[in-house]
TrEMBL record:
The lineage of its organism: Bacteria, Candidatus Fraseribacteriota. Signal peptide: none annotated. This is Isopropylmalate dehydrogenase-like domain-containing protein. Pfam families: Iso_dh. Residues 9-354 form the Isopropylmalate dehydrogenase-like domain.
Amino acid sequence: MATRAERKRVLVFPGDDASPEAVIPSVRLLESMNLPLEFQFPKLDLAELKQGILPSTTKTAIDQADAVLFGAASSTALPILFYLRWGLETYANVRPVRFIPGTKSPLRNPERIDYVIVRENLEGLYPGREGDLSLLRERLPEITDQAGQKLRDVSDGKFAIRVITEKRTRRLAEFAVELALERKRQGYEGRISCFTKSNMLRQSDGLFQAVTESVVQRHSALKYDHFIVDDGARRLVQSPEQFDVIITSNLYGDILSDVGAATIGGLGLAPSGCYGEQKAYFEPVHGTAPDLAGKHIINPTATLLSAAMMLTHLHLQGEALNLEKAVRAVYQAGNVLPVDQWGKVSTEEFLRAVRDHLG
């Protein structure tokens, strides 16, 4: 066992609404595994956070941590989330979509589902560059759409600017290549599928597609294909077995990962990790579930699987596999299931069952 000096530090932010009811007991389970990790719950200045201010002490604690386990944000935790993503440049949002036998997928043959979405995490529409159309008309009066209509002739309304850059797309594609190569070593096909709307967004999505293709095709061990995003979404439901690693931009990735989660049984089963050049943080795909707050029935599976991704990142692959196997064993047994999987047990009861299955 590692000494205290060798132990790595994991910062835990439970999040808002029902999120802490999944995160806190999940961390207690992780602590029971005797990992060479020190879990810390930083003291937060709620007054500053509610004003949208990230205290310098919180920022420093994040900078000094080896990894961050994050719940979900809707209000108070948003400044933390913004720093974790844009402050730390965690550009690759990895969202595995893998069926667990025993969960309640709506599909007839869900065992076919086992792929990963790699979503660009920093640009696209999500930084929220929006405003009044009058400002855009003033600056770009002659710009036209594909039908030839000039912006100056468009009625009043709002605009949103979607930015796709070559630098960030190339960095994401290189990340996806490394992930696909690693999965190939594990027995997967070694295929990268790029999802865009380049038939309509010929410049921005066209750039994303072209850069991705140029990066992937330098690696002869990998296969590559491209799909228009609406066709790709259909295929995720109809023929998910054709996918291995999917690379796409911010908005598409967010939507498609929810589609994927629905096919395996719901958002309560969907983990994610956000990776940068130096730092990474891990969070469930689901939101804060305010309707479940105080009920202690939120499904902690997504949090546990996000924690398993974190363990792998911290070079604790055996422990990560042990945790994943324990989760899968509980679902396979079928007698201790969360409410969203048609069961009746509390969050804590489910976690006790997972602990009982740990090797």
